């Protein structure tokens, strides 16, 4: 699947296109298909996202998994600070990213 | 310590107001990201992997207790209660909101700090010897010259858009504690046979994808021509440095391609021209700056003995202190490398403790080391035990200075958008491995440095053992280098061979350490043994 990510303009938080808006949670990411470029242009112009780009990912049994480790780390948080990730209570989350 | 005058403060305050307005215009949509990016970078604000990152300048690594406490307050109020001390003697905050940036810079300005020129193609923060003003082996305190360079380079209109970023280091001893020859310009303050002070200029060093050791292009520049000669070096670079290819734009490439002799000839011609222009700051300004760096009121006759009755303290004191020029005093190094910890990270509470210790025991001064530790430069020997007890109670008493656990590591792929691989977990695992097997103390001095990409923020080229993280078809892979040094015997590490997985690199470091232990002769450090026996025994052990 072709998913879109970027950062929130004001907070810098990593966000994911969920089909209607932007979510903090990678697992909400929607397949943008062939519309990626149009969505990016529209959303960036409206300042709803900063520095957006499209990446490859797949939907697995446990959620959405970006193809590259960099985006998987973006989706969770720093692997060396589980307490600062989006899943601080899940001890397996970091291992699934790597 | 240097204190801002009205001009310094006015400049910084004006920049705060300007950048606050620029941030608001970006939020309001009056600036695009393309327009805003160069503006935020000029103020040290990056967009990193998880959020905005703010890099705050710490000139030549020197902080007062009040400044360190302000950094702690910013960590608490605007970030996630910690900060990361960097290999350029700065601090970075990883979780900054754009809407807070103006307020943070205003808080910094209240304590005479800023984030100006911590990014962009300009002259960056001037770094120096972290034992400056305390070390017995310096010919003079290098910090007044670093400060003069800071003032000259701040907002210098001609050097605001250089071909690439530009880094100075200034030292004043034959022992290099600032990786001087791995900077764009390294300056060593020296004394000539007539007893006069001057500056030796080393130009064209650097790490990154094309590491080079700076050649000395002039052995003695009179100190009343320091700025003029620096300007000449920069002018030739600004004129001929490549702007068509960012990977070939650093001054090291220019010096290499022209040849040091031709580059020097052009600098000397420019220098002669500039001397006629009279651009050197008046001597009175240097004299004014020097007054801020006079020795504190050391206690004459302070006890010169340490009470070593506590064995844990004795280990720390032996490992983490440095001789002081004043009898009865030491410089104490606070390791930010606890076993399994994140190199360079300090919590807000730890920063406050270090601020308090600086105020109570070190004449209100501490220093950031490029190895991501903190120095209390002037501690009475009689106070050292009390200092250690407080550090120990706060997780800051690790006795591992310059040992295998004292690892430099860049933020790597856990934080950095440029990184190809994670650095911190590798550092953590190596630190834990050698703590568990008990070899750390046996190995003695072994400087290990890890970078998560070829940009080499973790100084991997200069590690006795260096590790470079690369992306191998989407999987983290780690190259091993041996034989680097950033000290006065500067050398660049060489890659051993094929890279290793995350598990494999930890084993490989231990294998290399074992080769050293088996082969070392009396008094040899890891680096000495490597230089004597060469790469082959290590390759044989690593790859069979």
From TrEMBL, chain A:
Xref: InterPro entries: DUF2849 (IPR021270)
Domain of life: Bacteria
Organism name: Allopontixanthobacter confluentis
Protein name: DUF2849 domain-containing protein
Automatic annotation (TrEMBL), chain B:
Tree of life domain: Bacteria
GO cellular component annotations of the record: sulfite reductase complex (NADPH)
Cofactor: siroheme; [4Fe-4S] cluster
InterPro entries noted in UniProt: NiRdtase/SiRdtase_haem-b_fer, Nit/Sulf_reduc_fer-like_dom_sf, NO2/SO3_Rdtase_4Fe4S_dom, NO2/SO3_Rdtase_4Fe4S_prot, NO2/SO3_Rdtase_4Fe4S_sf
UniProt cross-references to Pfam families, sorted A to Z: NIR_SIR (PF01077), NIR_SIR_ferr (PF03460)
Alphabetical GO biological process terms: sulfate assimilation
UniProt keywords, alphabetically: 4Fe-4S, Iron, Iron-sulfur, Metal-binding, Oxidoreductase
Domain Nitrite/Sulfite reductase ferredoxin-like: 52-110, 342-393
Gene Ontology molecular functions: 4 iron, 4 sulfur cluster binding; heme binding; metal ion binding; sulfite reductase (ferredoxin) activity; sulfite reductase activity
Domain Nitrite/sulphite reductase 4Fe-4S: 119-273, 403-542
Alphabetical list of Gene3D superfamilies matching this protein: 3.90.480.20, Sulfite Reductase Hemoprotein, domain 1, Sulfite Reductase Hemoprotein,Domain 2
Protein name as annotated: Nitrite/sulfite reductase
């Amino acid at each position: 699947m072709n998913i879109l990510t970027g950062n929130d303009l004001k907070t810098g938080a990593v966000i994911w296109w969920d089909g209607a808006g932007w979510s903090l949670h990678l697992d909400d990411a929607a397949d943008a298909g062939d519309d990626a470029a149009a969505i990016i242009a529209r959303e960036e112009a409206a300042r709803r996202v900063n520095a957006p780009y499209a990446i490859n990912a797949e939907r697995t049994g446990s959620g959405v998994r970006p193809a590259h480790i960099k985006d998987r780390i973006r989706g969770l948080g720093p692997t060396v600070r589980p307490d600062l990730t989006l899943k601080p209570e899940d001890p397996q989350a970091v291992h699934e990213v790597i | 310590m240097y204190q801002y005058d009205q001009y310094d403060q006015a400049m910084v305050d004006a920049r705060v107001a300007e950048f606050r307005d620029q941030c608001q215009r970006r939020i309001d949509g009056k600036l695009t990201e393309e327009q805003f990016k160069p503006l935020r970078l000029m103020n040290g604000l990056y967009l990193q992997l998880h959020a905005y990152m703010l890099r705050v300048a710490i000139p030549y690594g020197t902080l007062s207790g009040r400044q360190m406490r302000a950094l702690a307050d910013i960590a608490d109020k605007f970030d996630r209660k910690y900060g990361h001390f960097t290999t350029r003697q700065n601090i970075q905050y990883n979780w900054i909101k754009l809407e807070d940036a103006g307020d943070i810079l205003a808080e910094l300005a209240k304590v005479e700090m800023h984030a100006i020129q911590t990014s962009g193609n300009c002259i960056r923060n001037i770094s120096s010897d972290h034992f400056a003003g305390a070390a017995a082996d310096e010919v003079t305190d290098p910090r007044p010259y670093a400060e003069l360079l800071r003032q000259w380079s701040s907002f210098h209109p001609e050097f605001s858009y250089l071909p690439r970023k530009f880094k100075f280091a200034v030292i004043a001893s034959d022992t290099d504690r600032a990786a001087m020859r791995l900077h764009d310009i390294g300056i060593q303050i020296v004394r000539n046979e007539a007893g006069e002070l001057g500056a030796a200029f080393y130009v064209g060093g650097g790490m990154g994808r094309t590491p080079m050791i700076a050649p000395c292009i002039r052995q003695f520049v009179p100190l009343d021509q320091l700025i003029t000669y620096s300007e000449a070096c920069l002018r030739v670079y600004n004129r001929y440095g490549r702007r068509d290819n960012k990977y070939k734009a650093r001054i090291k490439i220019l010096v290499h391609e022209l040849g040091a002799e031709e580059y020097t000839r052009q600098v000397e011609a420019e220098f002669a021209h500039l001397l006629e222009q009279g651009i050197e700051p008046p001597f009175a300004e240097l004299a004014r700056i020097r007054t801020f760096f006079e020795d504190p009121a050391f206690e004459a006759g302070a006890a010169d003995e340490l009470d070593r009755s506590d064995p844990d303290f004795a280990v720390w004191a032996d490992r983490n202190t440095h001789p002081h020029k004043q009898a009865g005093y030491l410089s104490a190094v606070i390791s930010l490398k606890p076993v399994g910890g994140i190199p360079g990270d300090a919590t807000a509470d730890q920063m406050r403790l270090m601020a308090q210790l600086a105020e109570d025991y070190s004449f209100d001064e501490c220093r950031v080391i490029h190895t991501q530790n903190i120095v209390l430069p002037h501690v009475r020997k009689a106070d050292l035990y009390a200092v250690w007890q407080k550090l120990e109670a706060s997780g800051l008493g690790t006795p591992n200075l310059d040992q295998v656990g004292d690892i430099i590591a860049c933020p790597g792929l856990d934080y950095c958008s440029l990184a190809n691989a994670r650095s911190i977990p590798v550092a953590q695992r190596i630190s834990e491995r050698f703590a568990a097997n008990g070899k750390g103390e046996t190995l003695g001095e072994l400087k290990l440095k890890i970078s998560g990409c070829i940009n080499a923020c973790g100084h991997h080229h200069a590690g006795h053992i260096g590790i470079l993280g690369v992306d191998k078809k989407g999987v983290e892979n780690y190259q091993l280098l041996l034989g680097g040094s950033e000290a006065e015997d500067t050398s660049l590490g060489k890659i051993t061979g094929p890279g290793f997985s995350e598990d494999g690199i930890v084993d490989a470091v231990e294998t290399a350490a074992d080769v050293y232990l088996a082969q070392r002769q009396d008094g040899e450090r890891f680096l000495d043994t490597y230089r004597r026996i060469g790469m082959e025994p290590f390759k044989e052990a690593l790859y069979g």
